[in-house]
């Protein structure tokens, strides 16, 4: 219990003093995970909507693959990205392994199936006749899709929270593709693992509390938006 209290004190001290290293790590965590979430939203909502509204051979297999991808272990995502970005890999010429860019790619790979799966389920649960009604009122297919996305905005906001939560808290892929380099690719999760390995449990707890606080603030803002738009 004393160790937890000391960790809280350390977290409070690091925050109120704006410790440069902690602020840099926190900002990098937010930037990497925020960018990855944005890319996963663009991909996930697009693909999820297309699959939800389209009938094609093998559709059930595609849905099964998407649902399986929602549980993709971060270390597997990190392994895949590492193989592709390795100096002898297909994309090795880019020389971006052990950089924040590689971390964004890995985290996007983790978040995309989560967003896609939730988007797919959100669009599917809308009444099927709604599409026909929208088209009957003179809307084209693009307008229909946009209206359907607006109708499913509440669960889609849940997709944003789930995608962001899935990447801000992951550690395996970030270490594998980022290298945990001080001042360059070290984020809150990897710094916490490093401090734990060194036996600095108070600092590790402090970083953990800061990570939880960051996740809480982001999700609280998104929840506020979601509940404000809730049907009454």
Lay out the secondary structure:
Layout: H1 2-16, H2 20-53, H3 59-69, H4 74-85, H5 100-124, H6 128-136, H7 141-151, H8 153-168, H9 172-178, H10 188-197, H11 201-228
Tell me the span between the first and last alpha carbons. Answer: 44 Å
In the CATH hierarchy, what is the architecture at level 2?
Answer: Orthogonal Bundle
- The count of DSSP E runs of length 2 or more, i.e. the number of strands, is 0
What would the average pLDDT be, to the nearest integer?
87
Task: Please state the oligomeric state of the protein chains shown.
Answer: single chain
**Helical fraction:** over 70%
Number of alpha- plus pi-helical segments: 11
* Beta-strand share of residues: under 5%
CATH topology category name: MetI-like fold
Gyration radius, in Å: 20 Å
Please tell me what the overall shape is.
globular
Give an overview of the whole structure.
The longest helix has 34 residues, at 20-53. The protein has one domain: MetI-like fold, CATH 1.10.3720.10. α2 (20-53) packs across α8 (153-168), α3 packs across α5 (100-124) and α6 (128-136) packs across α7. It has helices at 2-16, 20-53, 59-69, 74-85, 100-124, 128-136, 141-151, 153-168, 172-178, 188-197, 201-228. Helix content is 77%, strand content 0%. 34% of the residues are buried. It is built from eleven helices and no strands. With 232 residues, the protein is mostly helical. The mean pLDDT is 87.
């Amino acid at each position: 219990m004393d160790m937890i209290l000391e960790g809280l004190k350390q977290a409070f001290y690091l925050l109120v003093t704006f410790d440069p290293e902690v602020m840099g790590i926190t900002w990098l965590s937010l930037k990497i995970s925020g960018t990855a979430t944005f890319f996963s939203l663009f991909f996930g909502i697009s693909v999820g909507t297309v699959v939800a509204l389209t009938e094609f051979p093998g559709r059930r297999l595609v849905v099964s693959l998407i649902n399986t991808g929602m549980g993709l272990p971060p270390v597997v995502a990190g392994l895949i990205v590492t193989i592709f970005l390795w100096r002898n890999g297909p994309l090795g010429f880019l020389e971006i392994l052990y950089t924040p860019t590689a971390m964004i790619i890995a985290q996007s790979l983790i978040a995309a199936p989560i967003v896609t799966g939730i988007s797919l389920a959100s669009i599917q649960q809308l009444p099927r006749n709604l599409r026909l009604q929208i088209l009957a009122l003179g809307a084209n297919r693009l307008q229909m899709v946009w209206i359907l996305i607006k109708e499913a905005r509440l669960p889609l906001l849940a997709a944003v929270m789930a995608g962001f939560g899935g990447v801000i808290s992951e550690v395996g892929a970030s270490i594998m593709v980022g290298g945990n380099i001080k001042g360059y690719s070290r984020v809150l999760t990897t710094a916490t693992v490093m401090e734990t390995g060194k036996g600095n449990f108070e600092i590790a707890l402090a970083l953990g509390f800061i990570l939880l606080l960051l996740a809480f603030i982001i999700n609280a803002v998104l929840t506020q938006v979601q509940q404000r738009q809730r049907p009454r």
